[in-house]
Amino acid sequence: MVEGVIVPTDVILSKASELLREYDTTTTTKTTTGRSDDDDDDDVRQQVKEEIVEDLKAEYGRASVDSASMAVKEAIDQHFATIAAGRPRPPAPTRKRDDGEEHGGHVKRARAEGKEAGEAEALQLELASGLFVTTQFYGGKKLLSLRKHFQKDDKWLPTKKGVSLATDQWSVLCSKVSEVSNALAAKDTGFACDLGGGGKRVTISDYKGKDYVDVRQWYQKAGESAWQPTSKGVSLSKDAWGKLVDHLEPITQSMEGGGGATPALKPAAAPVAKAGVAAPAPAEAPARASAGPTATPGEVEVALSSTRYLKVRENKNSKLADFREFYQKNGALHPGKKGIALAKAQWSVLYANLSQIDAALKERNTAYDLELSSGRRVRISDFRGKHYVDIREWWQKAGEAKWLPGKKGISLNPDQWAMAMGNAGQVDAAMGN
């Protein structure tokens, strides 16, 4: 028995499925050998339910199973309905999506195959083995799905294990990323974040020493104030959560944009290590340096995330501190246009003011303004409740005094800024100071 922790619902449901498979033969025999009466069938099934629940409580503890009781009940009921009369259960004429909209079983099939016009997935990203985040259209609306998939005929197809978020719920999650990451780092299993109504929440769970970010649909029993988890949701490991955080920008762009159809999901190949790509760390974590994907002998390169680097490089015999976002092509990372390279004098101003910039970020002081040189500034920006250190080139229209932000620059989230700060001394030494 696991004591002192609430076991993730996904773990309990997986064990329940395993136990149900052990009961399949017995249950089918009883319901096809003279016990065809509905009441008799119900007696058999109720007995199996009780035995499975007791087995679960013996292994995971009463508190964990009670917290997942509704999800377990739904899973058991669905299992019995599926094997009734020894044949698959036909799809219901209509069912409710996670977002509350009704549709028939054929929509799910079309969505899985990515063939229904206007509802094809616009973005697909594998967070862990078989666990994908996808964005897709449904009824003219964009939805984000965090869902387990299975392989069939060289394709990844979605399972029922997952949760869908509407655009406003995704926006709330984005605004709470730092809070969730801090709670995950602190192992705060009391943390709970509501995603703007509808019963969808983010919590932190702990199982056998491993911590998870749980995104799930919750419910309340009639007349009770306590919230209970359902089977609609997923538990993200630290690595999966880190990968999701790393890709907030393209996911948000896909949710906000029109995004066309993409090919069906391919079976996952064996993971390929990307040299120098470090998992994102919480702001309080020790800084880590990395020999990045394009590093050459003598160069210093710090991984700020899996696609962003701070690199000291030379250009025309001058040292530059280059903050840059990379993209992947042919198995290698290449520098993109998004970023800014600071000359030695500009870097020196930034390095001398690290503490002030960090304080402004923590205070969410969007009035902070540090001039690195004429036209280059460090400011604190705010987007949908999230704050960033913005290092950017600014410009003025002819005859006007107002400064406007240019495209040349980069915004660092708190975790990326912490990585830059933690390795600033190494970068400063490489710059020749």
UniProtKB/TrEMBL annotation:
<dbReference type="Pfam" id="PF02229">
    <property type="entry name" value="PC4"/>
</dbReference>
<dbReference type="InterPro" id="IPR045125">
    <property type="entry name" value="Sub1/Tcp4-like"/>
</dbReference>
<comment type="similarity">
    <text>Belongs to the transcriptional coactivator PC4 family.</text>
</comment>
<dbReference type="GO" id="GO:0003713">
    <property type="term" value="F:transcription coactivator activity"/>
</dbReference>
<feature type="domain" description="Transcriptional coactivator p15 (PC4) C-terminal">
    <location>
        <begin position="371"/>
        <end position="418"/>
    </location>
</feature>
<dbReference type="GO" id="GO:0003677">
    <property type="term" value="F:DNA binding"/>
</dbReference>
<dbReference type="InterPro" id="IPR003173">
    <property type="entry name" value="PC4_C"/>
</dbReference>
<dbReference type="GO" id="GO:0005634">
    <property type="term" value="C:nucleus"/>
</dbReference>
<protein>
    <submittedName>
        <fullName>SsDNA-binding transcriptional regulator</fullName>
    </submittedName>
</protein>
<keyword id="KW-0238">DNA-binding</keyword>
<keyword id="KW-0805">Transcription regulation</keyword>
<feature type="region of interest" description="Disordered">
    <location>
        <begin position="25"/>
        <end position="45"/>
    </location>
</feature>
<dbReference type="GO" id="GO:0060261">
    <property type="term" value="P:positive regulation of transcription initiation by RNA polymerase II"/>
</dbReference>
<feature type="compositionally biased region" description="Low complexity">
    <location>
        <begin position="25"/>
        <end position="34"/>
    </location>
</feature>
<feature type="region of interest" description="Disordered">
    <location>
        <begin position="81"/>
        <end position="116"/>
    </location>
</feature>
<dbReference type="InterPro" id="IPR009044">
    <property type="entry name" value="ssDNA-bd_transcriptional_reg"/>
</dbReference>
<keyword id="KW-0804">Transcription</keyword>
<feature type="domain" description="Transcriptional coactivator p15 (PC4) C-terminal">
    <location>
        <begin position="303"/>
        <end position="351"/>
    </location>
</feature>
<feature type="domain" description="Transcriptional coactivator p15 (PC4) C-terminal">
    <location>
        <begin position="198"/>
        <end position="247"/>
    </location>
</feature>
<keyword id="KW-0539">Nucleus</keyword>
<feature type="domain" description="Transcriptional coactivator p15 (PC4) C-terminal">
    <location>
        <begin position="131"/>
        <end position="175"/>
    </location>
</feature>
<feature type="compositionally biased region" description="Basic and acidic residues">
    <location>
        <begin position="95"/>
        <end position="116"/>
    </location>
</feature>
